[in-house]
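Researcher: Final request for today, and then I'll write up notes for the group meeting. The sequence and the SMILES for flavin-adenine dinucleotide follow.
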Amino acid sequence: MKILVLVKQVPDTATKIRVNAGDTVIQTDGVKWVINPYDEFAIEECLRLRERFGGEVVVLTLGPKRVEEAIRQALAMGADRAIHLDSDRELDSQAAARVLARACQDEGFDLIMTGKQAVDDDQAQVGPLVAVELGLPQVTVVLTLEVDPEARRIRAERELEGASEWVSLPMPAVITAQRGLNEPRYPTLPNIMKAKKKEVKVIAVESLGVPLDPWVRVEAFSLPPERPAGKILTGDPVEVAQELARLLHEEAKVI
Amino acid sequence: MAQGILVVVNQEEGRVRRVAYELLSLAQSLASGQVTALTFGPDAENTRESLGRYGADRVVFLSGPAYQAYSSDGFAQAVAAVVSTIDPQALFFPATAWGRDLAPRVAGLIGAGLASDCTEVHVRDDGRLGAVRPMYAGKVYARVAIDSPRQIFSLRPNIQTVVETGRSAEVVAVDPGLDASTFQAVVTEVKQSQGGQVELTEADIIVSGGRGIKAPENFKVLEELADALGAALGSSRPVADEGWVPHSYHIGQTGKVVSPTVYFAVGISGAIQHLAGISGSKYIVAINSDPDAPIFKAANYGIVGDLFQVVPALAQAIREVKKDA
Ligand SMILES: Cc1cc2nc3c(=O)[nH]c(=O)nc-3n(C[C@H](O)[C@H](O)[C@H](O)COP(=O)(O)OP(=O)(O)OC[C@H]3O[C@@H](n4cnc5c(N)ncnc54)[C@H](O)[C@@H]3O)c2cc1C
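Model: Predicted protein-flavin-adenine dinucleotide complex:
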């Protein structure tokens, strides 16, 4: 099976997000960059499919030079080779999807996976948009994946509110991964060494001839309002519990 | 010229989720032109009265044989056909599992920009719509513009107020002429996973437990409080990772992002990834034995104490307050 995994590099989730007044991008100095956590589930699932059915796993990443680190990590987890779409521009979801689709359309992948969303812009669009660009079906927010390469069919369980649903679809297809799908592996030292020798093809995004102007644009950022200093109660558990119930009832008027 | 807003919602057994009314109320307050609701499935017609009551001027029901089971590619084609018939200026989807699957598919198909999971949509000075949406799970909010001629927004549940306008919606017949045999990804089975638990993203009150709970069987203590409050149950990530509760309980940057009226954080330290998921809560109540736990900095109310003593007392005190009210 020939499998593609779309990987984005994002600020570590422990990052405190800083913005300057009037800026339309966040401050990135001092930010620690990591693979988008949901993309790690996607990488892991692709590796497991390859281990079971054979074939290769290709990593496709869009971003500036710094994303090389994410690519090396995905290769160290076990992916076979990578394509780096190099660009310093901030692309919106649709431009990103067009670029990603263009870069992989001639390779003939049986399966394309990515995370259910990137934890930076939280748009959750690139998976479905790539599927549309390539004319493929999709299943998003997947908890369980069953692939039958002989029949070229997939069954996937996706998460709903308080429920889940099973979706049946043909291959090739685009699948987006949710936490719970698997437990991603850590790169081992030998694999980290091997990863250094794996092929990374760099393609300048501008050379793809795809329109890059955004449709969705950030005009301004704001930080969530600070909460006023809270009322913190200490003392006898029963007394403080009664006082809290009174405050919630009389002051906040929420119970 | 394109006009009005198309509100795309799902229904089950003739009922829509509350978020459908939130979308219609908002659309009605913004639209220059008509608000049209679109819904799918065998009992779609039964939603006509309620969709009208909350702001739909018109309704389109796709209830034919092609729409018995959800298909992201099939339904996206159907939405595209409705869009070309009624020519709306904007589309609204709920930012639910259903809407977040369908909206980007539609956006790709009709070539329109989409802003996901918005907490606000407003009319800009140029007369077009703009939105505010959280990024980094709510660590920052972005005001966004959509420059494509048609605009698509998906809206987070539990943010907009619902307004009854008492319209009676006119039915518009649209036939996309689609055959289900051409649909590729099709739902074959739906499994209910939590017995009647209110969905966290729609819950008004949430009681959430962290590692301070110490063992899975102790979650009962929280269930008692949730019961007294009529609340849904949630958790920090480690508690879900340990398997003490289902994954669907996990709240935070890599779990559910919630916006209840009151969020009770019990035995939760208040890590940045957890706080990101709860910043949309109107009130945060912290119960923790460590007075220096970061959760107290985010809390409107807090109790420093042992949860095993405080929580049962609180459940009792809340029952009494409710009884007297
Ligand atoms: C990539 C990444 C993503 C993450 N995403 C998330 C996420 O989405 N959501 C999330 O929640 N976490 C997330 N985390 C984990 C996060 O960093 C914290 O580790 C986690 O939130 C801590 O969970 P906790 O508060 O339950 O446990 P702890 O930090 O261990 O806190 C337990 C608290 O219980 C209190 N306590 C102990 N005993 C009692 C008692 N008897 N009575 C009262 N209080 C008591 C303690 O004082 C302490 O404050 C993520 C981490 C990473 C690296």
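Model: The pocket of flavin-adenine dinucleotide is lined by residues A 13, 37; B 210-212, 236-239, 252-255, 267-269, 271, 273-274, 277, 288-290, 293, 306-308 (CB under 6 Å). Chain B is about 30% helix and 25% strand.
Researcher: Thanks, that's everything.
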